[in-house]
Structures are given as C-alpha cells and as structure tokens.
Amino acid sequence: MIKKLILPALLLSISIGNAQGKKTKTYEVASPEGKNKIQFQLVDNAPKYSVNHGKIQVITPSDMGFMLKNNEDFSKNFDVVKVENSTFDETWQQVWGEKKKIRNHYNQMVVKLQQKNAEKRKLEIQFRAYDDGIAFRYVYPKQGTKDSIFIMDEKTTFNLKEDGKAWWIPAYKENRYEYLYKDSPVSTLDTVHTPLTVESKSGLKLSFHEANLIDYASTTLVNNTGTQLKTDLVPWADGVKVRVKDTFTSSWRTLQIGENAGDLIESYLILNLNEPNKLGNPSYVKPFKYFGIWWAMHIGKYTFWEGEKQGATTDHAKDYIDFTAKEGLHHLLIEGWNKGWTPAWYENKMHMFSFTQSADNFDLDKVVEYGKEKGVELIGYHETGSNLINYMKQIDAGFALYKKLGIHTVKIGHVGSKLNMKEWHHGQFGVNYFRYVLQKAAEYDLAVFYHEPIKDTGERRTYPNMLAREAARGQEYNAWSEGNPPNHVVILPFTRMLSGPMDYTPGVLDVEIKQGYPGKRVHGTTAQQLAMYVCFYSPIQMLADLPENYAVPAFQFLKDVPTDWTDTKVLNAEIGQYITTARKDRNSDDWYLGSMTNEKARDISVPLTFLDSKATYEAQIYADAEGTDETHNPSAVAISKKTVKASDVLKLHLGGAGGTAVRFKKL
C-alpha cells in the first residue's frame, strides 16, 4: 500500500559567527531519523552548504552556484528571499528490481535566492535529507530571460572534512568508463567519474554521484586543493558546459552515506530522486536471462563481420535457438546480423551500419520465425559505432522492423571515443541523445540496454524499459586483454553498480578459455562466475559462455537463479576485498546467496537470519572445490546440499579469486 504524506515543517535557523565575526543566518534540515543534516547559509552573500552525519562533520562549508557566459558570476551577491521546509514519505513499487517495495522518506528545504544587481536573477536550491544520504539540485526558474543561458562552469564543491581512500576511474579518457578502478587518497585525485566511492578516515563509506540527469551535462569531480572535490561538468566540443533556454534544472548532486560498505548497496537514494514511473507496467518489459554468440566473437571463434568465420549466420542462429530452447530459456542475442560490419568496426570513424538490411548468410525473418516455433525470442542489436547522424536517420525504421517481428528488447552499442567523433558520450549532447532513444524505444514497445552509454542516474524508475547498461569494464576484457584482476569484481558493486544495473555479461564457466586466444583467461574461478548472478544486479543476465561449456553440473545454478527480486541484503562486505549478498526471488519463496573474494582466500561465516524463521530450506551449495583458486583447478565446483533454517550459520570457504553460490529452496 502506498502512503504519501506532505506536511509543513518548522523552519530551523540559527545564528553563528563567520570568520569575520559577522552574524549570519543558518538554515538547516535533518533527515527523518536525524542521521544526516544539511546546513545552508550565505557567507558574504555567497551560498554555502555543509553536511553532518550524526556528530561527524562530513562536508565543511562548500561553494555553490555557476559561472555564465561573458564571465557573469552567478555564485554571489545573493539575498535569501524565502525558505520552505516539508516532509515526504511514500512507499512505491518497482516494476522490476533488486527490491520490490522502496520507501522514499525525506525532509526537504527549498532555498529561494535572488541576486542584488540590476538583473535580479533568481536561483532556487532544493535540499533533501535522507537517512542514507543527502541530495541537492539547482532550479533556474523562468524569469524573463531573453537570451539562451550558457553555463560555463558549475562551482559546486564538496569540501571533505577529512581525507579518505577513494576508488576511482579517470574522466576524459578514450575508453569512456571502461577502466580498472584504482584506490588512492582523495587529496591525490585528478579528474574522476562518478559514482566516486570514498572510505573516510572516520570509517564512513561515502558515494558521490548524481540523479535524474535531464538536459544537462553529467558531472565529473576534480580535486584542485586539499580534500576538496569540485564539480566539473562534461563540456560540448566548443567548451560550453550546458546550453538551455528560459530555465534549467540540474541533476541532483548526491552523497550516499553508510556506516559499512553494504549500506551503500542497500541505499535507494538515486532511484528515489527520479520521477515516478511514466510507462505503467508495460507487458513488453520483462526481466530475463539470455544466451548469445557474443563470447564466441570476443575469443576469436567467430567474427562480427561477414566472411569465413562469420558468427551471425542463419545456421548458427538456429543452433543457438535449439540450445536455448533445450535449456528452458527464451531469449537469444545475435550481434552482427545486419550490414555494415567490417574488421575495423570498433575503430574511431563514422561507420555506416544498416539497421534494416540483413548480412549475407543471415535471414532475419527466418531466424525470428524459427525462434517463435521454439519459444525463443530474438533480442535486437543496433551497433551505432557512435555515428549518430547515420543512426538517427534510420532509428524509426529499425525500431519499426523489430516491432513488426515481435522483438521487444534491443541492445544498442556506441563504440567510439566520442559521439559523431566530436562530442563526449556524457556531455549534454549525449545525455539528451540517450534519453531520446529510450523514449523513442517506448513508442515501439521496446526495452533497451545500452553499451558504451551515459552512466545510470536512476532513469529506470521513470522509464522501466531502461533495463541495464554497461558503463564499466566488463567481462570481454578477459577474452583479449590482460584481463580484469580479481579485485575488480569486488570493487564494482561499491562503485559503478551503485548507479544502477550493469550488463557485465557473466557466466563464463570455462574460466581458462581453452578455445580462446593463447594466454588469455578469466582471473577467477567458475564458482565465482556463478556468484556474480547474485552479487551483480541486473534484470537481464547473459549466460555468456559457449553452449558446449555448459554441459557441467554447475550449470544448474544458472538455470535456477532468477533476475527479479523482492529483497536484497548485503550480509558482509569490504570494498575491493569481498562481498556476500542475499536476494529473495520475487516469484517464489526461495532465497539466493552469492559470495566473492579478491585474490585472497577467505573463510566466511554467514548467519542465515534473512530466511523465514518458521521455515526449513534445502541449501544447494556451489562452492570452490578443495584446493581450487584462480591458478589451481579453477573450474572445479563442489556441489552439495544441506538442510538449514534461519537460526543456522553457514560456513563458506572461498578460494583465492573464488566464490560460492547458494540456492535456498523452501521445503
């Protein structure tokens, strides 16, 4: 049942002395249980905010505002015109997700400012205090502006009270978000992407990000001095950060605050800051698992392009459909089905793909029809090569073809360092493009997952046809590069995945990649690959390996594990070291557990208190076999069963770079 409550709240204000000894009025808003508090004041007529978690000051007074075109300073010379406080409390239900019902409970303070100069520009700053963090955004209301507004810089800073360890990837690099995370002190950072996760010296776990990004540039963070992080909006090619008319609303600047690492994952602040569902419960939006020929292409068995080793042929597609149907799954992805693929398809140039014409040796109509006979639906694929001029000319025809064929999901790729070889994927141009395509897809009853995308800022709440995206270094790097080190997979849940579902493409059970490029392999165990389906959240999960590599008993877990959940609990975790996550199936009484570690072997005790205290369960356990780790018999999985209940403690042994996956089947 949804409950909504909007109440007036008393405005809290106090007077304190600033550095010059003057009295200045301070306004504050605290979260519902008082865990987090935001203070706002004008210091020499410039807006400043600070943040406390309990008795710990997290953010000391920090700058706000903008620089506009012609060096116009929109960050000072303000008066406070009005301050409004309110409370909001509702529980809303996700169409699909890692948790079915989410409570959105916050206290809000809206500060209305006006400059004292002749233009008398107005600015509204909205602050929200949650028990799992804080957020604020800027609203520039309509006020008779005749010319377009050009934002040249956003002056928002986060002045951390103390230094801490940050897990980060660099911004403004050719491979977008696809880099290995490094950890180093905040005070040593350059310019980095968000989510940026920090463990402060006081032990708090912090995540800086943004939510509800619409018609605005995405933010990166730059360290210029001490432990200060400053917003650095991703620019257009001409250097302008944001160009709008009449009015603008920034994305929410978000700071999630946890006392342990799992608190960050169990926070739904990013989703809560997005607008409610605009699509209802569309029948074409469904969580699922899928097979594909993608991995065979990455390990060199097949090619994306036409030729002797062409992957996308009618015969290959039928073989994969037969396998998908035999294993009881219903979705299959075939990349390379269309014209335009060449051996240089991934290089930076304006590639010319067709989105309606089938490649030689591939008959789209026949493949779709054969799939329907077998109960297998094809997933569409559009690789744009970042040539959006070409894509926009064909998008309606491409989507209409899929609707005609009864295809309801499309993967859309954007390989290339810049869109149209000119604009960043995460500038205002890219932000608007990706949202436009999402809305366009809904017109054709299509759900979407993006590769090489803009990062997630919670759009899936508003548009549940936004299933997942890549936006990080995924499994494919194990196929043809030095690979992802063992700690990568226990960093991702606390960094990239705090923004939203990731299409990591797990499920490679032949971790030594015997059919692939010499010397390339997955730096982890098969049991760890199983655990990813619980530890890595996505409503769509690929079973990435070759069909013949699934002829092993451990494959049963991948057939059983769902992709839609009622509840999620992080049972124990340390960033970059290990994680144990439990999730309850939305469509049964079963729970699933995944536990993963970095290169260090671990023994972990897991209290099963999340289980129904009145029930008994069969624990179906898939663990690293004795003596197994990344380099010793990594494919060996020990499968066992035992009867358990909520009062029990499950003891797990994880080999180095290993894992354990468990299904708790209610008896």
Give structural attributes.
mainly beta; Beta-galactosidase, Chain A, domain 5; TIM Barrel; eleven-stranded antiparallel beta sheet; nine-stranded antiparallel beta sheet; 10 helices; globular
Draw up the topology in text.
Blueprint: E1 5-8, E2 12-17, E3 23-30, E4 36-43, E5 46-53, E6 56-63, E7 66-68, E8 72-74, E9 78-93, E10 101-115, E11 122-130, E12 133-140, E13 149-154, E14 157-160, E15 164-168, E16 182-185, E17 191-193, E18 196-200, E19 205-211, E20 219-223, E21 228-233, E22 242-244, E23 248-249, E24 252-258, H1 261-265, H2 269-272, E25 288-292, H3 294-298, H4 314-326, E26 331-333, H5 364-374, E27 377-383, H6 388-405, E28 409-413, H7 428-443, E29 447-450, E30 466-469, H8 477-480, H9 526-535, E31 540-542, H10 555-560, E32 565-574, E33 578-585, E34 591-597, E35 602-607, E36 617-624, E37 637-644, E38 649-654, E39 659-666
Parallel strand pairs: 25-26, 25-31, 26-27, 27-28, 28-29, 29-30
Antiparallel strand pairs: 1-9, 2-3, 3-4, 4-5, 5-6, 6-14, 7-8, 7-13, 9-10, 10-11, 11-12, 12-23, 12-24, 13-22, 14-21, 15-16, 15-18, 17-20, 18-19, 19-24, 20-21, 32-33, 33-34, 34-39, 35-38, 36-37, 36-39
Give a written overview of the molecule.
The protein is mostly beta strands and 667 residues long. It folds into three domains: 5-272, Beta-galactosidase, Chain A, domain 5; 278-459, TIM Barrel (Alpha-Beta Barrel), CATH 3.20.20.70; 472-667, Alpha-Beta Barrel (TIM Barrel), CATH 3.20.20.70. The chain is built from ten helices and 39 strands. Strands 1, 9, 10, 11, 12, 15, 16, 18, 19, 23 and 24 form an eleven-stranded antiparallel β-sheet that branches. Helix 4 (314-326) packs parallel to helix 5. It is globular.
